[in-house]
Design goal:
It is a single chain. By secondary structure, this protein is mostly helical. It folds into 2 domains: 9-38 and 50-127, no CATH class; 142-228, no CATH class. 56% of the residues lie in helices and 6% in strands. It contains 9 helices and 3 strands. The protein has helices at residues 17-29, 35-47, 53-67, 69-80, 119-139, 146-160, 165-172, 180-194, 202-217, and strands at residues 90-93, 101-104, 108-112. A 3-stranded mixed beta sheet has the order 1-3-2, sandwiched between helices. A hairpin with a 3-residue loop joins strand 2 and strand 3.
């Protein structure tokens, strides 16, 4: 009689964020995943707690891919550049970090279901990550290069709608009305670059964002203009 593999439930830390994303993608595609690993994934899948809002995130994602003008626009331009993003590699999952999502060239886009609570949030975050995907294909983006990282974060926050004027007014009030859009973009870009393992400090992140600001803020490709 064939002995069944010894399967042990992985610790919660190993089943969340990037590692869970990597394993689930390998399981679905069959790439880099042997039979024992598939069985282990199925076992862990049953043991892992998924918040109910994962299903909600997937519903919001599906709506955005079908009806959102910004998402449809970016998906079209990514296809023109040879990208292959689809439902197969735009997934929802639990994230440990306080962030909305992530892009990986080999794995696609992850939407953090435990942080995204509305259709608008999912639409903005998905557009943000699609800008990263576009930049990777169009400009040979290298996230280890802090200049590259800062530039794509500036563009992603600017083009995604995350920093709409009315949203910033709701958050911070009417003071400095004209500068809120740029302040929001810079704030988000500095936070993202600060998290880069190659960035020594938040001060360095702010310095790099300032260095590339003019050229990257004024680059709205593939959009013709930005609506604030």
């Amino acid at each position: 009689m064939e002995k069944k593999p010894d399967l042990k439930t992985s610790s919660p830390e190993k089943l969340s964020g990037f590692e869970w994303w990597r394993r689930s993608l390998a399981y679905r595609t069959g790439l880099g995943c042997d039979d024992k690993e598939k069985l282990q994934f199925e076992h862990d899948y049953q043991a892992k707690y998924f918040p109910e809002n994962c299903t909600q995130c997937e519903s919001f994602r599906d709506w955005a891919l079908t009806y959102s003008p910004s998402v449809i626009f970016m998906m079209g331009h990514i296809r023109k550049l040879g990208g292959n993003l689809s439902l197969a590699n735009i997934s929802c999952g639990k994230c440990d970090d306080l962030k909305g999502g992530g892009f990986h060239p080999d794995m696609g886009i992850l939407l953090c279901s435990n942080w995204l609570q509305s259709q608008t949030q999912v639409e903005d975050v998905l557009t943000h990550e699609l800008v990263h995907a576009y930049d990777y294909l169009k400009f040979k983006l290298d996230m280890k290069d802090l200049n590259h990282h800062a530039c794509t974060e500036i563009r992603a926050s600017m083009l995604s709608g995350e920093c709409r004027i009315m949203r910033e007014i709701w958050k911070t009030g009417l003071a400095n009305f004209g500068g809120k859009f740029q302040q929001c973009i810079k704030r988000r870009a500095v936070l993202s670059v600060s998290a880069n393992e190659n960035c020594p400090s938040p001060d360095k992140a702010a310095e790099v964002v300032d260095k590339v600001w003019n050229s990257c803020f004024n680059d709205t490709r593939p959009f013709e203009r930005v609506f604030r």
